[in-house]
Design goal:
143 residues; alpha+beta; Thiol Ester Dehydrase, Chain A; five-stranded antiparallel β-sheet; 27% helix
Length: 143
């Protein structure tokens, strides 16, 4: 059984356009918050890694497919799986649904980055081992 990180987010008024439909830039902001929660779940709070350890996980690639609009007041369920791990990158697959209906999916590549030198770095060993424990292929992941 693959490890999948799950969390929910309510769509707020500020996440939507005038028609009450989720605004795609807000989706990306919400996704970033889900990523932050995932890293905290792994034991690597962004506050600590950014301000104390001075490394981060910027997005270097992102693709999204939107299948159905979401509306103000709905609660979206986020599922995140780790599908590839490189020397200094990790590929995440996201599925976002509402009431078991997929609304959008995303594939995202994050890179380990030295925040002072603005260069990629290899994953710290403990982080690499933690991410390896979450690694699954996309077929097994099911989305």
């Amino acid at each position: 059984m693959p490890k999948i990180f799950k969390t929910d987010r309510a769509l707020r008024f500020g996440d939507c356009d005038i028609s009450g439909t989720a605004y795609f830039p807000s989706y990306l902001d919400i996704l970033n918050g889900v990523n932050e929660e995932f890293w905290g779940h792994l034991g690597y709070s962004w506050h600590t890694i950014i301000w104390t350890q001075r490394w981060g996980t910027p997005t270097v690639h992102l693709s999204c497919d939107f299948s159905k609009p979401s509306l103000f007041g709905e609660t979206l369920s986020f599922e995140l799986g780790v599908i590839k791990l490189g020397r200094s990158s990790v590929t995440l697959r996201h599925r976002i649904s509402c009431k078991q209906e997929v609304r959008w999916t995303s594939t995202q590549v994050l890179a380990a980055s030295d925040l002072d030198k603005h260069t990629s770095i290899p994953w710290p060993e403990d982080v690499k081992h933690t991410l390896e424990a979450w690694l699954t292929d996309q077929e097994t992941l099911g989305f």
